[in-house]
Amino acid sequence: MIPISEIFKTVQGEGPLIGRPTIFVRSGGCDYSCSWCDTRYAVDAIHRNTWEKMDADVIWDIVTTLSPTPITITLSGGNPALHDFGPFLQLANLNRYPVVIETQGSIYKPWMNRLSKVILSPKPPSSGYNTPIERVTEIERALFPRTAYKVVVFDDADFEYAVEVYKNRVYEYSDFYMQVGNLMYDDQISYEALMHKQRWLTKRVLDAGLNDVAVLPQMHVWLYGNQRGV
Q1: Nearest to 193 by CA among 206, 175, 180
Q2: Are 119 and 148 in contact (CB under 8 A)?
Protein backbone atom coordinates (compact mmCIF):
# COMPACT_ATOMS: atom_id res chain seq x y z
CA MET A 1 0.00 0.00 0.00
CA ILE A 2 1.37 3.39 -1.02
CA PRO A 3 0.33 6.71 0.57
CA ILE A 4 -0.95 8.87 -2.30
CA SER A 5 -1.30 12.62 -1.96
CA GLU A 6 -2.89 13.29 -5.35
CA ILE A 7 -3.29 11.97 -8.89
CA PHE A 8 -4.08 14.37 -11.73
CA LYS A 9 -3.67 14.91 -15.48
CA THR A 10 -1.73 17.91 -16.76
CA VAL A 11 1.33 18.75 -18.87
CA GLN A 12 4.81 18.31 -17.46
CA GLY A 13 6.08 21.70 -16.32
CA GLU A 14 9.82 21.11 -16.13
CA GLY A 15 12.77 18.93 -17.05
CA PRO A 16 13.30 16.80 -20.16
CA LEU A 17 9.59 16.14 -20.73
CA ILE A 18 8.43 19.75 -20.39
CA GLY A 19 5.16 20.38 -22.21
CA ARG A 20 4.27 16.70 -22.57
CA PRO A 21 0.85 15.49 -21.35
CA THR A 22 1.28 13.40 -18.22
CA ILE A 23 -0.53 11.98 -15.23
CA PHE A 24 1.12 12.86 -11.95
CA VAL A 25 0.99 10.19 -9.28
CA ARG A 26 2.20 12.08 -6.22
CA SER A 27 3.09 9.94 -3.22
CA GLY A 28 3.23 11.16 0.36
CA GLY A 29 6.38 11.19 2.45
CA CYS A 30 9.94 12.34 1.90
CA ASP A 31 13.38 11.78 3.37
CA TYR A 32 14.06 15.52 2.91
CA SER A 33 12.24 18.66 4.03
CA CYS A 34 13.59 21.37 1.75
CA SER A 35 13.36 24.97 2.92
CA TRP A 36 11.60 26.03 -0.29
CA CYS A 37 9.52 22.89 -0.90
CA ASP A 38 6.37 23.75 -2.86
CA THR A 39 4.56 20.48 -2.07
CA ARG A 40 4.55 20.50 1.73
CA TYR A 41 1.17 18.76 1.61
CA ALA A 42 2.98 15.69 0.23
CA VAL A 43 5.97 15.89 2.57
CA ASP A 44 5.13 16.95 6.12
CA ALA A 45 3.74 14.36 8.53
CA ILE A 46 1.09 16.84 9.63
CA HIS A 47 -0.65 16.20 6.29
CA ARG A 48 -0.67 12.39 6.56
CA ASN A 49 -4.39 12.35 7.22
CA THR A 50 -4.91 13.72 3.69
CA TRP A 51 -2.96 10.88 2.04
CA GLU A 52 -4.88 7.82 0.90
CA LYS A 53 -3.31 4.36 1.06
CA MET A 54 -3.68 2.69 -2.34
CA ASP A 55 -2.46 -0.53 -3.92
CA ALA A 56 -1.29 -0.86 -7.52
CA ASP A 57 -4.73 -1.81 -8.85
CA VAL A 58 -6.45 1.24 -7.34
CA ILE A 59 -3.78 3.61 -8.65
CA TRP A 60 -4.01 1.97 -12.06
CA ASP A 61 -7.81 2.33 -12.15
CA ILE A 62 -7.51 6.07 -11.46
CA VAL A 63 -4.80 6.51 -14.10
CA THR A 64 -6.77 4.69 -16.80
CA THR A 65 -9.92 6.63 -15.94
CA LEU A 66 -8.02 9.86 -16.50
CA SER A 67 -6.50 8.50 -19.73
CA PRO A 68 -7.88 5.27 -21.30
CA THR A 69 -5.07 5.44 -23.87
CA PRO A 70 -1.32 5.40 -23.11
CA ILE A 71 0.12 8.57 -21.61
CA THR A 72 3.30 9.31 -19.71
CA ILE A 73 2.93 8.72 -15.97
CA THR A 74 5.11 10.79 -13.64
CA LEU A 75 5.88 9.43 -10.19
CA SER A 76 6.52 12.39 -7.93
CA GLY A 77 6.26 13.36 -4.28
CA GLY A 78 7.66 13.84 -1.72
CA ASN A 79 10.09 11.20 -2.78
CA PRO A 80 8.41 8.31 -4.61
CA ALA A 81 11.60 6.24 -4.29
CA LEU A 82 10.61 5.63 -0.66
CA HIS A 83 7.81 3.31 -1.79
CA ASP A 84 7.41 0.10 -3.80
CA PHE A 85 5.95 1.09 -7.17
CA GLY A 86 7.05 -2.24 -8.67
CA PRO A 87 3.58 -3.82 -8.97
CA PHE A 88 2.14 -0.60 -10.44
CA LEU A 89 5.03 -0.33 -12.87
CA GLN A 90 4.32 -3.87 -14.05
CA LEU A 91 0.73 -2.90 -14.93
CA ALA A 92 1.89 0.23 -16.74
CA ASN A 93 4.57 -1.59 -18.72
CA LEU A 94 2.16 -4.32 -19.80
CA ASN A 95 -0.22 -1.68 -21.14
CA ARG A 96 2.47 0.47 -22.78
CA TYR A 97 2.14 3.48 -20.47
CA PRO A 98 5.65 4.97 -20.08
CA VAL A 99 6.53 5.78 -16.46
CA VAL A 100 9.10 8.33 -15.29
CA ILE A 101 10.21 9.30 -11.80
CA GLU A 102 11.30 12.60 -10.29
CA THR A 103 13.56 12.07 -7.28
CA GLN A 104 16.45 13.82 -5.54
CA GLY A 105 18.71 10.81 -6.02
CA SER A 106 19.03 9.83 -2.38
CA ILE A 107 17.41 6.37 -2.64
CA TYR A 108 17.75 3.58 -5.18
CA LYS A 109 15.24 0.75 -5.59
CA PRO A 110 15.59 -2.18 -8.06
CA TRP A 111 12.15 -1.50 -9.60
CA MET A 112 13.52 1.82 -10.91
CA ASN A 113 15.38 -0.16 -13.59
CA ARG A 114 12.03 -0.72 -15.32
CA LEU A 115 11.21 2.99 -15.63
CA SER A 116 11.22 4.78 -18.99
CA LYS A 117 13.14 7.73 -17.56
CA VAL A 118 14.73 8.70 -14.24
CA ILE A 119 14.92 12.44 -13.57
CA LEU A 120 17.53 13.03 -10.88
CA SER A 121 16.97 16.35 -9.12
CA PRO A 122 19.67 16.67 -6.45
CA LYS A 123 18.93 19.44 -3.97
CA PRO A 124 21.31 22.43 -3.84
CA PRO A 125 22.54 24.31 -0.72
CA SER A 126 19.52 26.63 -0.54
CA SER A 127 17.32 23.62 0.22
CA GLY A 128 19.15 22.96 3.46
CA TYR A 129 20.09 19.43 2.36
CA ASN A 130 22.70 19.49 -0.41
CA THR A 131 22.32 15.98 -1.87
CA PRO A 132 25.75 14.23 -1.91
CA ILE A 133 26.97 14.17 -5.50
CA GLU A 134 28.59 10.76 -5.10
CA ARG A 135 25.25 9.25 -4.07
CA VAL A 136 23.47 10.69 -7.11
CA THR A 137 26.15 9.44 -9.47
CA GLU A 138 25.88 5.94 -7.98
CA ILE A 139 22.21 5.95 -8.96
CA GLU A 140 23.04 7.38 -12.39
CA ARG A 141 25.47 4.54 -12.94
CA ALA A 142 22.83 1.97 -11.98
CA LEU A 143 20.09 3.45 -14.16
CA PHE A 144 21.83 4.90 -17.22
CA PRO A 145 20.78 5.43 -20.05
CA ARG A 146 17.41 6.30 -18.53
CA THR A 147 18.87 9.19 -16.52
CA ALA A 148 18.60 12.95 -16.86
CA TYR A 149 19.58 15.65 -14.38
CA LYS A 150 17.49 18.63 -13.28
CA VAL A 151 18.88 21.07 -10.70
CA VAL A 152 16.86 23.94 -9.28
CA VAL A 153 18.93 27.11 -8.90
CA PHE A 154 18.06 30.00 -6.60
CA ASP A 155 21.43 31.76 -6.09
CA ASP A 156 25.16 31.69 -6.80
CA ALA A 157 25.86 28.87 -4.34
CA ASP A 158 23.18 26.74 -6.00
CA PHE A 159 24.66 27.47 -9.42
CA GLU A 160 28.12 26.39 -8.29
CA TYR A 161 26.63 23.20 -6.86
CA ALA A 162 24.80 22.54 -10.14
CA VAL A 163 28.07 22.99 -12.05
CA GLU A 164 29.79 20.46 -9.75
CA VAL A 165 26.97 17.97 -10.36
CA TYR A 166 27.29 18.60 -14.09
CA LYS A 167 31.06 18.05 -14.06
CA ASN A 168 30.77 14.85 -12.01
CA ARG A 169 28.20 13.08 -14.17
CA VAL A 170 29.26 9.53 -14.87
CA TYR A 171 27.98 9.72 -18.44
CA GLU A 172 28.14 12.88 -20.53
CA TYR A 173 25.03 11.65 -22.35
CA SER A 174 22.91 12.12 -19.22
CA ASP A 175 20.97 15.23 -20.28
CA PHE A 176 21.36 18.17 -17.91
CA TYR A 177 18.80 20.87 -17.10
CA MET A 178 18.93 23.88 -14.82
CA GLN A 179 15.83 25.78 -13.83
CA VAL A 180 15.00 28.79 -11.74
CA GLY A 181 13.31 28.05 -8.43
CA ASN A 182 10.03 29.63 -7.43
CA LEU A 183 10.23 31.48 -4.11
CA MET A 184 6.57 32.55 -4.09
CA TYR A 185 4.34 29.85 -2.63
CA ASP A 186 1.02 31.64 -2.76
CA ASP A 187 -1.13 33.09 -5.53
CA GLN A 188 0.91 36.29 -5.70
CA ILE A 189 3.50 35.11 -8.17
CA SER A 190 6.03 37.79 -9.11
CA TYR A 191 6.44 37.05 -12.79
CA GLU A 192 8.77 40.02 -13.19
CA ALA A 193 11.07 38.57 -10.51
CA LEU A 194 10.91 35.13 -12.14
CA MET A 195 11.84 36.62 -15.51
CA HIS A 196 14.75 38.49 -13.92
CA LYS A 197 16.02 35.26 -12.35
CA GLN A 198 15.55 33.39 -15.65
CA ARG A 199 17.73 35.94 -17.43
CA TRP A 200 20.32 35.76 -14.64
CA LEU A 201 20.55 31.97 -14.82
CA THR A 202 20.70 32.00 -18.62
CA LYS A 203 23.62 34.43 -18.50
CA ARG A 204 25.46 32.33 -15.91
CA VAL A 205 25.14 29.22 -18.09
CA LEU A 206 26.27 31.08 -21.23
CA ASP A 207 29.19 32.77 -19.47
CA ALA A 208 30.31 29.43 -18.01
CA GLY A 209 30.36 27.84 -21.46
CA LEU A 210 27.95 25.07 -20.45
CA ASN A 211 26.90 24.51 -24.02
CA ASP A 212 25.01 21.26 -23.49
CA VAL A 213 22.99 22.47 -20.49
CA ALA A 214 19.35 23.41 -21.10
CA VAL A 215 17.99 26.37 -19.10
CA LEU A 216 14.27 25.97 -18.47
CA PRO A 217 11.50 27.81 -16.66
CA GLN A 218 8.92 26.07 -14.51
CA MET A 219 6.23 26.14 -17.18
CA HIS A 220 3.43 25.15 -14.79
CA VAL A 221 4.19 28.21 -12.63
CA TRP A 222 3.82 30.49 -15.65
CA LEU A 223 0.58 28.76 -16.66
CA TYR A 224 -1.12 28.23 -13.33
CA GLY A 225 0.81 29.98 -10.55
CA ASN A 226 0.96 27.71 -7.53
CA GLN A 227 -2.38 25.98 -7.88
CA ARG A 228 -2.57 22.31 -6.96
CA GLY A 229 -3.71 19.60 -9.34
CA VAL A 230 -2.78 21.36 -12.60
Answers
A1: 180
A2: yes
Cα 84 to Cα 80, 107, 108, 146: the distances in Å are 8, 12, 11, 19
pTM: 0.92
CA distances in angstroms from 89 to 56, 106, 173, listed in the order given: 8, 20, 25
Q: What is the dihedral of CA 19, 17, 187, 131, to 10 degrees?
A: -170
Per-domain residue ranges of the chain = 2-177
Picking from 101, 68, 71, 103, the residue whose alpha carbon sits closest to that of residue 86 is: 101
User: pLDDT by residue (tens digit) across 67-113?
Assistant: 999 999 999 999 999 999 999 999 999 999 999 999 999 999 999 99
Tens digit of pLDDT for each residue in 154-173?
A: 999 999 999 999 999 999 88
Q: Write down the architecture of domain 2-177 according to CATH.
A: Alpha-Beta Barrel (3.20)
